Amino acid sequence: MEYRVKDISLAEEGKRRIDWAEAHMPVLVALRKKYGETKPLKGIKVAGCLHVTKETGVLVRTLKAAGAEITWCGCNPLSTQDDVAASLAKHEGVGVFASRGVSTKEYYDDIHSAMNLNPHVTIDDGADLTVEMHKAMEEGKLKGPLYGGTEETTTGVIRLRAMQKAGKLLFPIIAVNDAETKHDFDNVYGTGQSALDGIIRATNVLLSGKSVVVAGYGHVGKGIARRAAGLGANVIVTEVDPIAALKAKLDGYSVSTMNEAASIGDVFVTTTGCKDVIVADDIAKMKDGAILANAGHFNVEISIPDLEKQSTGHKEVNQHTMQYNLKSGNRVYLIGEGRLVNLAAAEGHPSEVMDMSFANQFLAVLKIAASKGTMKPLVHNIDKAQDQEIAMAKLQAMGVTIDVLTPEQKKYLEGFAEGT
After folding, report:
1. Sign for the pseudo-dihedral over CA of 305, 309, 313, 318
2. Which of 124, 167, 173, 299 could form a disulfide with 338 if both were Cys (CB 3.0 to 4.6 A apart)?
3. Is residue 404 domain-resident?
4. Residue 84 vs residue 143, higher pLDDT
């Protein structure tokens, strides 16, 4: 199978890293054993557009074991781990089109190359593949039946629900991101830890005693705020949603506007999924040495054009950090070009949380493949039973047992018995 990776000689290192992740993903491995013999995906073509990480490698292995024919591309120009991409191409026989540091044109060329498989099922993160598939469908370029797709992240689900509302969604999507065993763990614990890991790797600053401004208090923002506070930082949350802001306040954090926080913060992390969260007026107020990082899917939350307009020049400090010299004389530091800091400057989410996220992905692909195109072109939620199954499997892998309702308790909860 054709592939396009940066350096195929990195394949052995990539294989070792995938093996490491696999040892920490027992739920996905158990699913591989369960479906490896029956091969429910035999004859099914799957195109994936996800961060090419060692954890993604375990998902690809599992899809292949279930019988799928696979092509893969990256969903962010700075998130591909080149050794993993090389390993998937050499050792798994996957058509991988992904390299770290690609241009915008190369990024979309990779997506289109993955699409050439004419997939039955797509796996997406951010909806770029899904949008390009829609364009191909409208132009009559797809040759085979497309049964549906999945979406991994909040930003992508927002885009796809907007398409559905506008009547432009042409095939069904399962919103994997909205599963409890995804967003309550991957987004909170995964991004919470890995985003700060990226900041620390890129700068080696001490977070204890610093003021960390977290823009947005959704699942990602909560996780980052909690971990920053745990490292001794003074956390300031900015929000546009009054309910989210109130939650942040009652969780013990300061809440203010970005305009107020701009002159106070030492480290800024955007997590909103929206554009222009940090703009020129905010940047002009920042103190010398302020650090800017983004944990949202796209690099639009920190306005790079505004940052450049406020600067007299910039220089690279290290592989992941750019110093901007402001007109005020102060210096601010941008990590990873304003792209996902946990993947641009670190290794992404820990394997243990991706175990549940990718178990959801795998089971969603099985459901779509079994539907043979009978699902309605809507954004579908994960079944509650699937969430419960994955959570129980994770607990068992961790050696944790929980109580079970007695028949009498079930009857009580399902009925209208008196409280006495």
Report:
1. negative
2. 299
3. no
4. 84
The tokens describing 34, both together, are: 């369960």
State which H helix or E strand residue 124 sits in. strand 121-124
Q: Is 168 helix (H, G, I), strand (E, B) or coil?
A: coil
Angle between helices 11-22 and 82-91 in degrees, nearest 10? 90
* Co-location of 95 and 168 in the same domain: yes
Share of the chain above pLDDT 90, in %: 97
This prediction's pTM = 0.94
* Cβ 351 vs Cβ 311: under 8 Å: no
Residue 254 and residue 275: Cα distance in Å, rounded?
23
Q: What percent of the chain has pLDDT over 70?
A: 99
3-state secondary structure of 110: helix
- Examine residue 413 and state whether it is found in any structural domain, yes or no: no
> Between the CA of residue 318 and those of 85, 98, 202, what are the distances in Å?
24, 23, 8
| Mean pLDDT taken over the chain | 97
Does any domain span residue 420? no
Cβ atoms of 349 and 191 closer than 8 Å? yes
Are 66 and 91 in contact, with CB atoms under 8 Å apart?
A: no
For residue 317, is it within any domain?
A: yes
Helix axis angle, 384-397 to 26-35, nearest 10°: 110
- d(Cα 174, Cα 349) in Å, to the nearest integer? 21
Note the residue count of the chain: 420
Q: Report angle CA 276, 310, 218 to the nearest 5 degrees.
A: 25
pLDDT digits 0-9 by tens, 254-280 = 999 999 999 999 999 999 999 999 999
Q: Supply the range of the domain harboring residue 390.
A: 8-182+349-397
Nearest-CA neighbor of 326 among 277, 287, 377? 287
Residue 417 pLDDT? 56
Name the nearest CA neighbour of 265 among 302, 310, 299: 302
Which amino acid is it at 25? M
88: tokens are 């998937």
346-389 pLDDT, tens digit per residue, is: 999 999 999 999 999 999 999 999 999 999 999 999 999 999 99
Whose structure tokens read 């350096």? Answer: 7
CATH number, domain with residue 289: 3.40.50.720
- Please tell me the total count of domains within the chain: 2
Backbone phi and psi for residue 249, each to the nearest 5 degrees, phi listed first:
-65, -45
Short-list 193, 190, 218, 220, CA closest to 207: 193
416 pLDDT above the threshold of 80: no
